[in-house]
Structures are given as structure tokens and as C-alpha cells.
Amino acid sequence: MEIKERNRSYTSEKEGGIWFSFSRRNILTLAGWGLFFATIGAYLSQILGYKGFFYPKVLFEPSPRFSVGEPKAFPENSVTTLKSRKIFVVRDGNSFKAISVVCQHLGCAVEFSREKNIFECPCHGSKYYRNGVNFAGPAPRPLDHFEVVLDDSGKLVVDTSKKVPLETELVV
Ligand code: FES
């Protein structure tokens, strides 16, 4: 009697044509398959999906080589701050330099003081001459200088991936 009763819950198709019965075993089986397919789906989305396994793991940063415009755009004997590029373009007569704004102490952005004609760091007081050489405060070395060249169209091009010696300048 007991066996017959149990069979009824599993094979309800014979009795009433219902293809599925809500027995505990069926629900657990369904939950198991559901978990299985969810796991497979999660793995596949990692492998094939947007930014998945095949997507290159790179940072998209602006090029370190960029044009800053024609030489005449910079007044003679001036220091122009290009904040977005983190450089100063220093023009003395017809010579140009690109100097980093990054302080050599702990990396704050230095500022140019027109009154004093020097670079000053607002964080711990380092000071640099107009040519980038440090003379006061905790900064251990001069500001970085970057390569400046003239391209075919006559524009100044700075490459912040190429550091150059302090005395390097582009004369146009
Ligand atoms: S970060 Fe410039 S002096 Fe400390």
C-alpha cells in the first residue's frame, strides 16, 4: 500500500495526464539544474561577454605625445601652464622647454609664481627656479623636462614619455 501511494506522486502522467508533479524530489532536481545552468551562464558571460576573457586588459590613456600648438601661440619669455597635460611650456626668446608640473618631493602639482618668477609647491614648500632646478624645500631633484620637437606642420609636439636633460631646449 505504501509503495503504491509513493508511486502516485512521481507518475502522475498515467493518472491525470499531468507531466510534472510537485514532489520534493522534482523540485530539488529542478533547483539543481537551475543552479547548474546559472553557473555555466556566468562562466560563459565572463569568457565571451563584454570585457570578458578575450577583451584586452589595457588602460586607455591619452597619448604621451601631443601637439601644443604653434610657437607663436606662446608669448616671448613666458611660462604657460597646460593643466590637462601636466606640463609648463617655458619660452625664453626663441627657445622652448616642456617642464613637468609634478613636484619631485611627493608629487603635488607645482605652480608658477609670476611675481617671483619661480615654481612653488603648495604642499611642503619646495621651490624651483624657472629652469626647473630645485633650490628650497624637501624636493630632492629638479622638475622633469620632456622632449619638445617641431612637427611637419610647424607645431610644437611634446612627448612626456621622453625625459631629457635640463639644458635641452628647442630653438625655433
Ligand atoms: S610635494 Fe611638493 S614639496 Fe612636498
UniProtKB/TrEMBL annotation:
It comes from the Bacteria. Keywords: 2Fe-2S, Disulfide bond, Iron, Iron-sulfur, Membrane, Metal-binding, Transmembrane, Transmembrane helix. The keyword Coiled coil does not apply. It comes from Candidatus Brocadia sinica JPN1. This is Cytochrome b6-f complex iron-sulfur subunit. InterPro entries: Rieske_2Fe-2S (IPR017941), Rieske_2Fe-2S_sf (IPR036922), Rieske_Fe-S_prot (IPR014349), Rieske_Fe-S_prot_C (IPR005805). Residues 65-157 form the Rieske domain. Gene3D superfamilies: Rieske [2Fe-2S] iron-sulphur domain (2.102.10.10). The chain crosses the membrane at residues 27-48. PROSITE patterns: RIESKE (PS51296). CDD domains: Rieske.
